[in-house]
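Schema walk-through. Below, the input block comes first and the output block second. Nothing else is stored per chain. Lengths vary across the set, and this one has 258 residues.
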Amino acid sequence: MTPLDEAHAAMEAAPENDAARLAFQDRLASAELFLLLSREPEGGDAIDPRMFETSEGIFVLTFDRLERLTEFAEGSAPYAALSGRILAAMLTGKGIGLALNPGVAPSSYLMPPEAVTWLADTLEGAPDQLEEVPQDIEAPKGLPEALLTALDAKLASARGLARMAYLVGVTWKSGARGHLLAFIDAAPGSEGALARAVREALVFSGLEAGALDVTFFQAASPVSARLARVGLRFDLPKFEPTEMKAPGTDPEAPPRLR
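--- output ---
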């Protein structure tokens, strides 16, 4: 069972459970998917996905394991490796759905074009930028377990973007109370990606209308010591260089659809 198999099984076991459905879509967006192609890319990064038509529409064919693609294709076949979020963005508005592991895994699933568009739109949204001054910091209280679980999963995938993060309760100078996630020693330029990850944790835990403020500090800042005393700590994985991939096989560097 892969993580997508498990998330799909949980969704199928509770079809009326919005949390299970959102958790599956979150897992799909974060997963590396292997997109079956009609032929090898020729020049640049343009790709020609293999598609199939059903009574429910036209779909591209994706798999969460290369072995599953090979089983479906009955042998080696051209493919491109893309993250679910990148693939959703490429397909949105084109009237094309996404077929996951068709006939080769427990997570065989058809995502219709409107669901692909919803996913792309959800992932595209950016958090609001506000300026507030914290007056008091305390231990976090009363946050839903679903949000803590979603945050833990999201930050575990934010490899190398920051050293750690602290979740705290906060009272702002305006008198408003809420919760704050403070990243420590964020990598230069990573602030937007980290803020979007927190927003996605809210959305996919079913708390889109909730609020969780995000800020950034250096470890040497006096505030960081206060955060460490009362905050719930999340350690982010360190960045480890990996072997360079061939064009069309980097999940976060999407080719163009032909």
